[in-house]
Protein 1
Amino acid sequence: MSKFKEFKPTSWSIDNRTSIYILTLFISIAGIFAYINLPKERFPDIVIPTIVVQTVYPGSSPKDIENLITKPIEKKIKSISGVKKLTSQSKQDFSIITVEFNTDIDVAVAKSKVKDEVDKAKADLPSDLKTDPSVLEVNFSDMPILYVNISGNYSLQDLKKYAELAKDKIESLPSITRVDMVGALDREIQVDLDMPKMIAAGITIDDVSRAIQYENMRISGGNIDMENMQRSISVSGEFKNAQQIADVVIRSNTGASLFLKDVATIKNGFKEKESYARLEGKNVITLNIVKRSGENLIQASDDCRDLIEELISNGSYPKGLSVVFTGDQSTQTRTTVHDLINTIIIGFILVTLILMFFMGATNAIFVGLAVPLSCFVAFLIMPTIGFSLNFIVLFSFLLALGIVVDDAIVVIENTHRIYQTENLSIIDSAKKAAGEVFLPVFSGTLTTIAPFIPLAFWQGIVGKFMYFLPVTLIITLLASLLVAYIINPVFAVDFMSKEHPSAESKSDNKKFIKNTRNWAIIIGLSYLIFGFGFGNLMLLFYLLYALHHFWLKRVIDRFQNIHWPKVQNRYSRMVTYTLQGKRSLYVVLGTVGLLFLSFFITAIRKPGVQFFPSA
């Protein structure tokens, strides 16, 4: 039976250290790849349950639109359960009704309910309404992530041909939902009827319309057996050019027959433009690229650019064709993500440097490892719950930097204390340290997590937006428990020394030279395998290692042996002084008085309340 209290999972990990090292390596590698593959966005991809009903009724005043269109539809929609807000606008020839549902309503269900009520309202709408009301959902993921502007000294028909080539290529990407083309000409065959000739021939517009419609058809001819196989037969009568339309035979009610070209002029033209695109004062054709919800915004933008570059390099696009990218959301997203990641790395380094002054370099590194390992565990979990890497998630990691090390600080410091003061081996010291502080550390972590749990149930649009913050923090803090009780004790057993040498020796210099060679190999491989960013990070770590060897080690030693004991002695004298006689009572009364004074000052000052801070 054990002579001291143990925490069984920690004892098991210490007894199976090789397995824990393999587990740590797996978490690190898998976490890095999970981070690389995580969808990266500037903002969380949230769905707002808002439905828009649009109705067009040409030739009607705003008053008529309100009475004939808007009010009948509103009356039906109001009966839907879960509607949070209903607004409408009645304009000349146009009605728009916006229905906002509670955030717990599924968008597809909300759209279906609105469609059903709009169908019921059709009986109350004008009988001469040419188009039915359209029901649309508001989806922010349908906003274009990139605009591709194609221009040059070519006709709009040629530009459209090049634009369609790029559109087909881009839409084949799995991360792209659709590509909308703006500013292009749509081909149209125009049939201009000569009314006097039609009257003389006894032909009506309906006769012309039916003749064109019945000639422009593909008719199935059934199946035929051929060599033990059945083949379908179809007769194609679809028009291929304007001349075929001109040769259509029209028969009047009187039995007269004539060609369409005898009573009409057929032109091969274009539809009236409904959209225009201009860049730097020139007409262009613009491709609005919309990515699929949940896909990596940065990767999608890079893939689109690569496709356009491929079209230019392989000769599919002529040299005189100009392709300009505008409105690229990935640029700002990339900058935001990189800035926050750099901030997290700097914060991690600062946390480790501060810990060095109080715990020594070795113990500080043990504790500091809790930061990347906790983040790696979070990266592994995030894809399973549908999280993307956005600025809310990264801000959560930044907020957790100083918290995830708390558990490791207690465990490692207690292990160091027991190992230095008691006659126990490092294995028994680590087991005893974890057993002594498990409940206090576990309860402390739960109390840290508890305030964030209600945030996960915050209602409304803001609640959906902020949902990523508490969930990310909770996952990261729970991961820090795993690191503190399973991984850190194993490192302590193998690398914690009985005492910290304060004097620099020749062996230290030889060790530094040897480690420098190893660092050179690591830095070189980092640049070759992982690229410029990871290589710079490894180089920074080596520079910190060199700084510690030549200067920081002596500064830490002076702080721990001279300055910090002075601070401890002064604090001890201050506590002893305040506990003598009635001074402790005065301290308690002063604290309570300061509390009420803060309430009073806050009430007098009346600080302003605003949802977002003004910039």
Protein 2
Amino acid sequence: MPGIVFTNRILERSSPTFLRLFVSLVSGIVIFSWVFYILGFLKLQSFSLIYILICAILFIRLRSYNLFKLKILKSQDWFYIASFLIIVGGTVFQIIPTFRSGLYYGYGMGFWGPNTHDGVWHIALVNQISKSIPPQNPIFAGMPLENYHYFYDLLIAATHFISKIPVEDLLFRFYPILFSIGVGIGTYYLVWRLFKDRIGVLKTKVTAIFTLFFVYFAGSFGWIVEFMKGRGLGGESAFWVNQAISFNLNPPFAISLIIIITLFHVLLSLYKSKAKSLIVLAIVLAGSLISFKAYGAVLVLGSLLVVAFFEIFKRSDLRYLIIFIVSSAISAWLFLSNFQVFNAVMIFAPFWFINSMVDSPDRVGWVRLSLARTASQALGQWPKFIMAETLSFLLFIFGNLGLRFFSLGSLIKIKEIFKNDTLLFIFIITILSIVIPILFIQSGNPWNTIQFFYPALYITALFSGPVIATLVFKLNKILAFIFVCLVLIFVPINSLVTAGGYFSKIPHALISSNELAGLQFLASEPDGVVLTYPYDGKLKTKIAEPWPILAYDSTAYVSAFSKKALYLEDEPQNQILLTDYKKRLVASKDFFLKPIKESAKFLQDNYIKYIYLPKIYNVRL
């Protein structure tokens, strides 16, 4: 309702109901996150209930419900039915990696895939946001959270505060379903708005089907690499980039994607209208993005700047410049309030991903190509070196895109891109999305920068649809049928293999029922800093699967389920956050090696109130 109230006059009255719902939902999520953020700073979180009540009253008083009239599909609208079924099937497909994590089983609570680390980190962070804004770092107690975009976690905390739905259900089930449905609806209407006038109604219907299929199911060409190595048909990230199946394993990206899709719709409306409300909504969406997903904000703001200059020189139109300046100011304020400016977040390292892809046996691992590059560089054989790097570059691009490379066919009509500011905006985002990870890595964890590439996967899927549809209409019936069958078979190969890995009965990591009981007891105690034994990687080799989460990896699970801040936990995440965690790591190890009398001062100096020490470590105080 809040989104409907704020956007009821932004879209044309003739806009489809589900498009209105999509734009209202995403706008409402962003605005609600802002409201809870401000109220949290003022220690007035309970006032968010009043905000919801006011929006409900306005929804009724303004009769906003009159804008929503559902159309019952007729039996002959099979194109629409096919699109609907792909959205439903694609949503089910994309929530496979998350749905089972965080549920209770006979052995306790299970976690699959990256949820063992990333999902647990989000639970820990949500618990701290529920206590205060800005939040304390849950894995580095006593310090505020820095160098992290936490508005997605803020949204989870706000939803939990209002609804009392368990955080695990919101994180692993409710919002993944909502995001995947949103991507489908937003994409479906984006196809109609972008292509209907260019290719006609019938081709647009076919385009929508193929585009949705690519958006939900497309994988990389990594299955070819794995097949050649005799390792099956997996290889989702053999070329580094995770594919559509892993969409919800990175929830900050998932929410940033639906915000970007909504921004596309707003800019399409702005192309035909001069309504100031559209400019305001575009500013809110673009300006907020940095706190949902910083990588997405960099792409959007950079693209806005390019389009702004283009519009000024071509049409003397200042609207994009206004959107860029104000949204950049909002982004700068959010960035400076949460990120350490003097830390080098990005490092210039051209071809780091490409070369590591070629060199690593866990990726492509093409030894001869790797040797050709290094030997030619050492010997100064620059033509051979350039050829090796060019081949590696092409492998990186086409390997990650998979059959999305069909989208390159849309560049035949590149002149049309420069005639439409929204198309130009989308095009610039795609270019930046591919170029930035080729040239830069992130300090702390260099591979994090590959996330810049994710929006390019979505946009190339979006533009693969019309190219496929055009080819289908140009081929005769037999060839068209064969072509479509090949596309349907080869597009989702390694995505299906990846999805299959999440159906195993044995979780990748678990928290036993007994340990959960201990953590729940700790959660019921008064707040205070917790000290636990540092992660021991050797423990994993001594225990049979399924592994307890404390042996699987260094995670934030104690903080997540005790709802308390840890003196030190989750070393990989601390590395990403650029904390000075190594000093605390040494201090923690020293504490457990010394007699408790010698370590009492350590506990007092660091305000440690609890020690959490599982028996499996075989450590006595």
Protein 3
Amino acid sequence: MGRKKKMVRGKSYSYLFKKGHTGMHKAYMKYSGSDTTDHIAESVESLSIADEEPSIAEITLSKCTALTSNTSHLGIRTRSISASEDSDTQYFFASTTHLNELFNRSAKGHMISHSDCIGNLVMVKHQQRLLSTSWYMKCDTCEYVGDAHSMTDKKDLGPGMTGPKPSTLNEALGFALLKSSIGGTQFRELMLSLGVLCGSSSGIQSQINKCGKVLSVIAEQNMAYERMICRNDPDLGICLDGWYTTKYSTGPWQASSQTAFTAMAAKTRKVLALIAASKCCPQATKLRNMGIEVDCPNNHENCTANLSKYSAIGQEGYYASEVGNILKKEGLEVSHFCSDADSKTKNGFLKVYPNAQHYLDKNHLSRSLKRGLVNAKYSKNMFNVKTAKAKARAKTRFAGDLKYRVESEFRTYFKTLKKGTLDEKVNKMTEHVSNLIPTVIECFKGNHQMCLKYSRICSKTSKWKLKHKIKPSKLDEAVIKKVILNKRLGPACLQSTIRDISTQSNEAFNRTLSKVNPKTVTNAVNFTPRMHAAVLLHNLGSAQCSITLLNAAGHKVSKEVKHNILMMEKANNTRKSIAQSAKGKQKRAKLRNYRQKLHDEKYDEPDQKLHDEKCEDRYEKDVNLPC
């Protein structure tokens, strides 16, 4: 028995050789794929092996081709397609109106000019520009040749403009690609995989560039309309946040060349202003390679950068002041705004609106609370674990569980404070927190006596489900209380979150930005239009955005297409509502707990479990648990 591996056309094959009774050898071939392993067994009776090396056989490439020639049913081809197998079949885009017009006019013209001819009319391509094609029909018997007809609608040129009329289908293609995650090259690969010719990649990119300018104007008009709606709001709140093309943000000196900074209305959750900053300029790179030194932005023709390469990409203070200037010019009076704990954003916006009240994002504070609990130092016996890995895992789970509990208590009690001024609400919350923190600590120890009086989450009928119990000392309790007060429920934190607003709407919009401009792709030329496409998707919705861009392109579609666009958005909204409902959140929480349980069962050592049981028995003897 012998084994040999061989590379055949980029694939790894493993051969098993077994000697037969007649001195011949049988070869069994095994194909190893990337994801799954398919076994392909083919016996070859005519492969002989030298006597001096009975366990190794040398199989040539031609014999490997013979082995795999009978595996067409498995999707494996080992030979090239010959010219005789080429087909004249062509696929193209056409509207039924123009196709009917081509057929009817050609048939009538053929009947009139050659009434005695019984030949067939065949279509011949006359011209193609991207997806738009024009065809004419000719007779395969006589000399009849019909007039050429375009298969798509044409758009009228502006006053004083000359040249061929652009196709509305190509215009719609440019808008569609701008609000999608793919570019011209990927679209061309997709069309060629379907057998459709769609022009060159450079032609598609040129069409995207033309449509990008129009899309930016539409998006700016939409944001101006949203600002006009908010102009008469006496209690206007703004949420500020930035998005970067890198996966992780590391401050102003992060490795990123593009960013988008947004200002959203706290009530309507619509984008009011957007600043798109980019250092990328392909034209400047070409000039530098030619020995011509240029300094972007706006130092040469066709410059796509609007930020100097020497500037910090994370200067959110500058972006916040620019956004404030846009709002100030249109007469918007901002009473308060919300951002993360970055002081530069706060100071930059206060330069334009010095009387606006600043509030912190509650979600950022919750994450800060979890980090504080993880980094805090506790006594050795608090978590009843033996190994360092188990202690780190228990500490992380405890911090996450306590974070959810504190945030749930805050939101539940905040809903009861419907009346009163903001200062009165802060005072009531401060009084409630003085009893809430000891209650939560006792609850995590397993003592629910105080929960019946001070907690609104853990009650007699519905107790808080503990994933684990802690055994803190008095010093540990003091540390936990200090972290909770400094990070989430202290007077300063309550004052900065008493309006219960957050930048969650900005984070949701950031996901739309990542959709139209994936972080793994650098769109140097069309970065700003793609950001504006995300604005239209967010403010108008996917259905209304698609219809608006179709109207801008002048591309007419049927009622059935519009119905499908609306139904697609309805289905997406239904999925979102289900995910955001209480039932959907409970389902995800249950799934997280189940996965965490599987993780603990796999990585907890047997001696660790025995250690926990012994500690639990000792703790039960020393402490009387009421429930």
